[in-house]
Design a protein that fits this description.
single chain, alpha/beta, Aspartate Aminotransferase, domain 1, seven-stranded mixed sheet, five-stranded mixed sheet
């Protein structure tokens, strides 16, 4: 019987347990190095930068959830993307989505360009990438939904073009997690995750993942990872393993809350726009229904004025004004000064990221408590 993804979050198809103890929680192998009996005789482990049993187990779990042939765990999402960029050479060209997490933009603009990689920005949710493909194009990199404007791209449609030109399709799947979306099954070659977010789920550690459907890509990435040394430490691997066990229930509850909040925001006079792909008014709603099993728990709203945005950020208490997303707590973020602070003013304006935009990562609290607080805050908002 084929296991449901909710079960896969807790049990691998082939369980890897500690047979001699029967430990249910996979052990933390908190060691830097491993001893050998003699020359040529190894346990299969040499040095934790190269391999570690706790990290291997986590990588097997994430690969299974994303239905990939290999997964690699890194010290952060940006460490994962930085490693991925080492696949490319000077003068290689990559098509990237116009709306990306600010940290990715910063990496591409200030590190990758310095190293000779060329980029073209395209609104992948509305434009075809095909006119932008050149002889030196090696990859397409996008998020769907995007951060923070929640644009949705058709992965299958784009993958047909990338396969036609033999270029890689890379999807950052952080917002939906493997519970709601599996880009590799839709034609992507590599999936990126900030494991800090939904996979960890508790805002208590940093992690990043690369998952691929190609063995040769996995082998190249493993060589780069062991050389550059950005692998995830054993204890952090264990924290992510623990978080993944509740991924299914957290995603379902957070999405349930997000749908309720999105509908509630739509009735508020101070809110001029609610951007959530689970609303039928969202341009990507039908695509999401086709390529995903859910809509996620990220909402972006636009309020009438900058002053209203600042008043909300100052006065929320249960909902916390903080960067990041994907934890059990509801967080509200101000992209223009936080996640996208290093993006140029021109780019921000082009993408619609203004001082009136707020991004909300909906948690798993009782939704009536979230609405009660927001009602009180907006009710006091006379600015």
């Amino acid at each position: 019987m084929k296991r449901n993804i909710a079960t896969k979050c807790i049990h691998l198809e082939k369980e890897r347990t500690c047979e001699h103890t029967g430990a249910i929680s996979f052990p933390i192998y908190q060691t830097a190095t491993f001893a050998h009996k003699e020359v040529g005789e190894s346990t299969g482990y040499d040095y934790t930068r190269l391999q570690n049993p706790t990290r291997e187990h986590l990588e097997e779990v994430v690969a299974a959830l994303e239905k990939g042939v290999d997964a690699l765990a890194f010290s952060s999402g940006m460490a994962a993307i930085s490693t991925l960029m080492e696949l490319f050479n000077p003068t290689d060209h990559i098509i990237i989505d116009e709306d990306l997490y600010g940290g990715s933009v910063r990496l591409f603009e200030h590190i990758c360009k310095k190293n000779g990689i060329l980029f073209t920005r395209v609104n992948c949710s509305e434009e075809s990438i095909e006119p932008y493909v050149m002889d030196n194009t090696k990859a397409v990199f996008l998020e769907t939904p995007t951060n923070p404007m929640m644009n949705v791209s058709d992965i299958v449609k784009i993958s047909k073009i990338t396969k036609k030109y033999n270029i890689l399709l890379i999807i950052d799947n952080t917002f939906l997690s493997p519970y709601f979306q599996n880009p590799l099954q839709l034609g992507a070659d590599v999936v990126v995750h900030s494991g800090t977010k939904y996979l960890g789920g508790h805002n208590d550690t940093l992690a990043g993942f690369l998952v691929t459907s190609h063995q040769w890509i996995g082998e190249k990435l493993r060589f780069i990872a062991k050389t550059t040394g950005a692998a995830l430490a054993p204890f952090d691997c264990w924290l992510i393993l623990r978080g993944i066990k509740t991924l299914a229930v957290r995603m379902e509850k957070a999405q349930e809350n997000a749908i309720a909040l999105a509908n509630w925001f739509s009735t508020q006079k101070q809110v001029t726009n609610v951007i959530y792909p689970g609303l039928q008014t969202h341009k990507g709603y039908e695509i999401m229904k086709k390529q995903s099993r859910g809509f996620g728990a990220m909402i972006t709203i636009e309020v009438k004025t900058r002053e209203i945005a600042h008043f909300i950020l100052k006065n929320v208490k249960l909902i916390q004004f903080a960067e990041s997303l994907g934890g059990v707590e509801t967080l509200i973020t101000y992209p223009i000064t936080q996640t996208h602070a290093d993006v140029s003013k021109e780019e921000l304006e082009q993408r619609g990221i203004t001082d009136k935009i707020l991004r909300i990562s909906v948690g798993i609290e009782a939704v009536e408590d979230l609405i009660f607080e927001l009602e009180n805050v907006l009710g006091q908002c006379n600015v």
